[in-house]
User: What shape does this take?
Amino acid sequence: MNYFEYKDGVLCAEGVRLDLLAQKVGTPFYCYSTATLERHYRVFSSALPAGSLVAYAVKANDNLAVLKTLARLGAGADVVSGGELAKALAAGVPASKIVFSGVGKTRAEMRAGLDAGIYQFNVESEPELAALNDVALAAGRRAAVSLRINPDVDARTHAKINTGTAETKFGIPFGHARAAYAHAAMLKGIEIVGVDVHIGSQITELEPFEQAFTIAGDLIATLRGDGHTISRLDLGGGLGVPYEHNNEPPPDPTAYGAMVTRVTRDFGCKLSFEPGRLIAANAGVLVSEVIYVKRGDARTFLIIDAGMNDLVRPAMYDAFHEIVAVAEPVPGSPRPKYDVVGPVCETSDLFASERPLPELKSGDLVAILTAGAYGAVMAGDYNARPRLAEVLVAGEQWGIVRPRESIADLVAKDRIPDWLED
Ligand code: LLP
Assistant: This one.
C-alpha cells in the first residue's frame, strides 16, 4: 500500500504532481511519501507484541527527513556505522532506542555509541567483543551487548543478501555461542543483555524467520541454564516487499507479527526489530526523463537520465522494479517493449529488459517504483554524474531534502597534489 497514484491523468505523490515536481527540481530525483512511511511504520509496529522496539534500519534510507519522520512516530534506529549513528541522533532518534549492528565496528565507532548512551551493541565476533570491552573500560562504562548468532538458516533470498548461513561473514556461529557468552560474562566492560538474529533481506516467506526465531529461543533457554541473564531478543529485519505488481500475495506484516507473537510468547524477552525495506521501499520512487528512444536491430532502448549510479539494485542484484509513465496511459493504448537503460557506459546499466510500457518519447517522464529503500543510499557519482536530488512530500507540501549536487561541487571534491600544480 502506498500513496503514489494517478490523479487527473498524472502520477502524484500524495497531493503533489510528479510532473510539476520535475519542472521545479529537475530530473532525475527520488521522491518519498510521508504518508506511506508512516503507514508502513504503524502497520508493522502495531502487529508486534506490546513493548517491542522498532529500530528502523537506517541503511535502507538514511535521509535525515525520513529519519525524523519515523523518529516522530516513536521509531528507534538500527545503525551500522558512526555516520549512521550521527545521522540518527541528528534526526532526533533518542540514543536509548539505537541499536549498533555490523561486523566491523571500529573502536572510534564503539566509543561514539558508548558516549551517546545507546540501547545496545549487537556484537558479531569474539575479537569485536574484546575490543568493545577495552573501549568501554577505557571510557569508564559498561556496554549493553547482545551477541548476534548465525543460526545457519537459509532465508531463500538473493545470495547477495542472504546473511544467516554458515558461509556468510555474519554473526557468531551457533556452535560457538555458549563459549562466546561464557567469555563475555567474564568481561567487566560488557553487560550481556540478550541475543540477536538477522538472517537476510527481502525474505518473502515466514518459515525461515520462524526457524531462526525458534533456534534463538532454544539458545536463550540454554544460556539461562548456564547462568546468563537474557532479557532482550533482537529479531533483525528482513521482511520483504512486493516489487512486482502481479498476483503474488505480498509478505504480510500482520502475519509476521502473529507468528512472532506465537513463537516468542514464552521467551520472556523484550523484543526489538530492525526493519528497513518494509518501511521505506514502497515509500519512494525515482523520477527520470526520457532522453532518447533508440531503435536497435534487436531491441528498442528507452534511454533515461537516471543511471545505475542513481539506482544500482537492478545491476547489482538483477532486481525487478516496476516502471510507469508519469502521464497516465490511455486504457487500451499500445504497449511496445523497451529496454530501459541509463546513460552510464556499462551494459549492466539496465533497469528493465523487454518491458511493455506505453509509447514514450524524448522528454516524457517515467517513475521507477519501490525505490525508497537501498536507492539513494547506494547512489554514487560514477561517470562523474552528480548525486541526484531527493524530495519529501507530505500531503500538498513538498521539500527538497537533499539538494542535487552540482557539477562544480563534483569537480571541487578532488585535490591536485603539489607536484602537479602548474
Ligand atoms: N538489520 C541488519 C543487521 C541488516 O544487515 C539489515 C540489512 C537490516 C537489519 C535491514 O534489512 P531489511 O529490513 O531492509 O531487509 N542493498 C540490498 C539490501 C541489503 C540489506 C543489508 N542488511 C538491496 O538493495 O536489496
